[in-house]
Specification:
Largest sheet: 5 strands, antiparallel
Strand content: over 45%
Number of strands: 9
Structural class: mainly beta
CATH architecture: Sandwich
Number of helices: 0
CATH topology: Jelly Rolls
Helix content: under 10%
Shape: globular
Distance between the termini: 19 Å
Oligomer: single chain
Order of helices and strands: EEEEEEEEE
Length: about 100
């Protein structure tokens, strides 16, 4: 994992949830208990159903999805939404300083 990274465990809801209201970067999406849904990440600081930046299968090959230590940049904020409320994923993210 990246130095200074944060972990956010998302579970039990299909509501769009704000993880960060500032510039951020996503380093990894790791499945913990998944079925067949999707994980949607949005570049937003509010739960406003804006256009997705990334959509991944929640069942990802059970190793998860790594984006590199630099991660994927989210300029406005970061939200996550599951399509299936029985899925559980761990989002590894960090503040984006520049």
């Amino acid at each position: 994992m990246s130095n200074g990274s944060n972990l956010y465990r998302h579970t039990g809801t299909t509501d769009e949830t704000v993880i960060s209201t500032d510039r951020s970067r996503v380093i990894a999406i790791l499945p913990e208990d998944t079925t067949a849904g999707t994980v949607t990440l949005r570049d937003s600081n509010t739960a406003d159903d804006s256009d997705p930046v990334h959509i991944a299968a929640a069942g990802l090959p059970q190793t998860g999805k790594m984006f590199s230590q630099r991660g994927v940049k989210f300029a406005t904020g970061l939200t996550v939404q599951l399509s299936d409320d029985t899925d559980v994923v761990l989002i590894v993210w960090a503040p984006k300083f520049s």
